[in-house]
Amino acid sequence: MKKHLFPLFLLFLGINIHAQQDFFAITGKDTPGINFNDFRAMDAVNATSGEKIFTAESSSKIFSQARKGSVAENKNSFNNSQAVTMAALAYDFSNNNLVYMPMFSSNIYVLNPQTKEITLVENNVARVSSCDINSHITRMTAGYDGNIYAVNNAGTQLLQMSKKGGQYVVNDLGIIKDDPSNGKNSFTAIETGFGGDMIADVDNNFYIFSASGNVFKVSVKDLSAKFVGKIAGIPDNYSVNGSAVNAQGKVVIASAKGAPLYEVDLKSLQAKQLPGEQNLHIYDLASKYFANDKKSSSSIITNLEIYPTKVDEHFINVHLSNKNVKGNLKLTIFDLSGKNVMNESLSVKDGSLDQKVYLRGLINGAYIVSIADESGKILLTKKILVAE
Q1: With 70 as the cut, is the pLDDT of residue 173 above it?
Q2: Which pLDDT tens digit goes with each residue over 129-154?
Q3: In angstroms, rounded to a whole number, what is the distance separating the alpha carbons of residues 380 and 298?
Q4: For 269, how many CA atoms within 13 A lie in the half-sphere containing its CB?
Q5: What pLDDT is recorded for position 388?
Q6: What is the pLDDT of residue 36?
Q7: pLDDT single digits (tens) 104-123
Q8: What is the DSSP letter of 133?
Q9: Is 48 helix (H, G, I), strand (E, B) or coil?
Q10: How far is residue 237's CA from residue 78's CA, in Å, rounded to a whole number?
Q11: CB 3.0 to 4.6 Å from 25: which of 10, 145, 191, 279, for a disulfide?
């Protein structure tokens, strides 16, 4: 049986580093099996390493969420924060933390990249057994809604991790099944669907890149995985162990086998090799970007726009240049449950508007912005992500 080198992570942190600050990786040592070495920043354009954030040799201080105090861990077990079998990680953009899970453990760890302190989230929802490869949590990412999602190899558990009242809460959303059209390209089979990594799009769908190079689109609404295709342009023996979206909307993939990184077009699944380091052993990737970000708006008139889509300051800009728009406009912001969380009047003069709208009191997460005219007709809707 081929090595099951399944992913862990890269992510975006608010720290000062020389590498591009939107990509991170979990790397391993040059050994035949999985052997965690460090979490590091990376330049996703040039495929070069930056600062090492946390290593297998770093001193660690573990705080138990359940026991509300510091705990000591057995470093020789699978259940510790520096276990050799790292396989899943995500960036919690709402709290600027790294969230990860050792592959053979149900423990969830939250690493503060500035203080290096680690919170242990004792997880009674995931049913992980070190001797059952089907149960291993090998894919993890942040969803556009701000929650963390993770999937085991066989798709029998889709976990959702949210933070409520300062505590991480874990829910099992159910079993992901093959779409009837998948045929021999099964999401739930070792050879075609296990391992790899996952990314999210702005509609909170997920794309899972299996170790074999197959790509599946997973719908949370109906818990189905549809085979999209197989990555082209990579070597036949390339093991896909990490995936994350870069600033250009392309997916970067990496391998645990000591191979180059590739950039993949999500529409064509055509890959091209990136320059830079060629022999990194990468178990997972993560970033602050989402797929299909430009498709997150709908407008019935021209020259009306809201930007930026990803809000990392305290405001958005509304621009209008359309002589057909008469009267003032009303901007309304809803959370993803449909609750109205903010209203703002927009002053239009001669069909022109350039206004900065400050997002008062909005916590990090995804929102829907709606702009209507004086009659109540919706002129534009757009999804934004607040990640300050």
Answers
A1: yes
A2: 989 999 999 999 999 888 999 999 99
A3: 6
A4: 14
A5: 66
A6: 95
A7: 999 999 999 889 999 999 99
A8: G
A9: strand
A10: 28
A11: 10
Greatest mean pLDDT among 28-32, 185-189, 308-312 lies in 185-189
- For 308, the token pair is 């930026």
Tell me the domain boundaries of the chain.
23-296, 304-386
Closest CA to 265 of 314, 225, 229: 229
Contact indicator for 140, 148 with CB cutoff of 8 Å: yes
CA–CA distance, 164 with 185 (Å, rounded to integer)? 38
**The tokens of 179 are what?**
């779409």
Instruction: Tell whether pTM > 0.85.
Output: no
Instruction: State how beta strands 297-299 and 36-43 pair.
Output: unpaired
Amino acid at 142: A
Which amino acid type is present at position 333?
I
Q: Can you tell me the distance from the alpha carbon of 358 to that of 369, in angstroms, rounded to the nearest whole number?
A: 13
Q: Which long-range contacts (CB under 8 A, 24 or more apart) does 310-313 make?
A: 310/384, 310/385, 310/387, 311/359, 311/384, 311/385, 311/386, 311/387, 311/388, 312/387, 312/388, 313/388
pLDDT digits (tens, 9 = 90+) for 24-64: 899 999 988 889 999 998 898 889 999 999 999 999 899 99
Torsion of CA 360, 361, 366, 370, to 10 degrees: -40
Helix ranges, the chain (H): 190-193
Greatest Cα-to-Cα distance within the chain, rounded to the nearest angstrom: 71
CA 239, 157, 186 angle in degrees (round to 5)? 50
Q: Which residues pair with 232 in a beta bridge?
A: 270
Omega before residue 308 within 30° of 0, cis: yes
Q: Which candidate, 310, 268, 247, places its Cα nearest to that of 46?
A: 247
Q: What is the mean pLDDT of the chain?
A: 88
Tokens 């930007």 locate to: 307
379 CB-near residues (< 8 Å, 6+ apart): 299, 300, 301, 304, 325, 329, 371, 372, 373
Return the closest-CA partner of residue 169 out of 121, 105, 117: 121
